[in-house]
What does this fold into?
Amino acid sequence: MVEVLGIFGFLSWLILVAYEWLSSLQVFPAIVTGTVLVPIWALRDYRRLQGRFHLQGLRSRRSPVPPERFYWEVNRSGLQRAMLWSGTVAVAGWSNASWLPASGSLDGDSIIGWMNAGVGIMAASRFLSASILFIKAAQWFDAMRPNVIGLIRMLMYKLSDNYEFLGQRKADPEREKVY
It folds into this structure.
């Protein structure tokens, strides 16, 4: 119990120090705006990406049917490209917002900083939604994908000898024989 209190105390102190440092920056209002808007826009974008990449079956907790498997093989690279581009644009937008501070004033630099922060917010929400969708979809089709998660599952299996960490499901032969 004492260890848990020590861990929570350390994490609280770390959050307080990070907050004090961030609040001293001129870009702090944009960061606060981003922490509010990114999760909201990411949830909206996640639902859009599910339809765009033919992954509506993730909403219902069922195993994937063969047409969804075929779509996944084709659309996986498109989702990875979306993650790459939106991540790059998010980093560029937020770094520009910090160089041209998006402060509370209405001068030219601040307005350009707010525009960069807006680009960073939109791109960060797309990166977050695409990343979550990619991980969930990869897990839906194969429990050992992406590779990092597969390595963690193998490590947990080796440490505990519990096969449930491998996440293997038996394929339903009735469903598969049509294709």
Q: What stands out?
A: The first helix runs from residue 2 to 23.
